[in-house]
Amino acid sequence: MKINLKQILLVFILPIITTTIISCSTDDGPSPLSNDTTPPGTVENLTVENLPGKARLTYNLPEDENLLYVIARYTLENGTKMEEKASYYSNNMVLEGFKGESEIEVTVRAVNKSEVESEPVTVTVAPEKAPIFDVFESLEANPDFGGLKVSAQNPTEESIAVLIMQRNDVGDWEPLPTSIYTKTSEISQSLRGFDTITQEFAIAVRDRWLNVTDTLFTEITPLYEQLMPKSSYRAVSLSNDAVTINNAYPVTNLWDNEFLEYWGSYFTARNLNLDSHLVTFDIGQKTKLSRLHIWAFSEPIGGQRLYYYLGAMKKFRIWGSNDPNNPDLDSWTLMGEYEVNKPSGLPYGQENNDDLLAARDGADYEIDINKPAVRYLRIESLENWAGGEFMAISEIHVYGNPDFVE
């Protein structure tokens, strides 16, 4: 089986590389800080601490009032030439990018303010295997609704890519645009949009220095899911549900195909003294749920739509039941708890194009496949973007498989 390593290594390069990669110099660079042509002394008592994919060098600096920094040069296992610098305020540096479990020669030099280098001191490092290999060992791929779910452990929170590959038209393995790029410690992500036929996938893990693990080959048969017909949805009123503003925005607005206008959205009253705001509805039949796709109401402010504003939910829960008569949440099953992230991180009331793109088409909130099949749903708003509990939702689509029940 042929894997196109060039595509794996070059097409999906992560954007941030913290260690300096050597580049060609030009005559237009900055001038030295002084005119001292005497080389500084060498670093001394150089010691090595080998770490996963890294090596820490500790040393004594030469006594030279013109000393500016210490530079280490080395070549990664994949042939990439690297440099790492540390100022004269520090007596150590961390070298990164190693695949690990091999010996690499490093040259270390002191550099003065005239950019004159000392004689080299050579040391051998032997880093432990890079963190991507532990991620790969924990990697799992399982069938999910409309695709597959990829899970792995990344305890050191390294910036990694989990490359999901399928064969292209000429039979080579090619990474999909939906490959996973993350630095979270717990990786659990569904990839959807696949036909419900058995398919081959190849999965590898790569770091930002283009080190790549072995490949996991697997066959996955995605599970069937459908948009539950909104014509079957019905409002349910329980005693602890929140009321709407002036009772003017009914629960049925949640599935009326209005995605922007306030008259087609659902709002709970802002002046209710509740720990959380709840809304309840019936999706028509008992269903193994895969996800809810929710569109937050976007406030028209100053000629633009703000999606992370006022009653748009920031933290919320989804509850399910097949016996909705008891309003006590202890009698309901928690289907999932969610927190909405604002891509830009801008202060409240400020949003950019990244925020718009992330929010305007709504977002999926996945239901764990191990949760029971249910017919009745409750949305519980815990916190909105204004810091309260009232909610403002434009539309909800419920996906699942009514035939996939226990």
TrEMBL record:
InterPro entries: DUF4959, DUF5000, DUF5126, FN3_dom, FN3_sf, Galactose-bd-like_sf, Ig-like_fold. Residues 39-128 form the Fibronectin type-III domain. Pfam families: DUF4959, DUF5000, DUF5126. This is DUF4959 domain-containing protein.
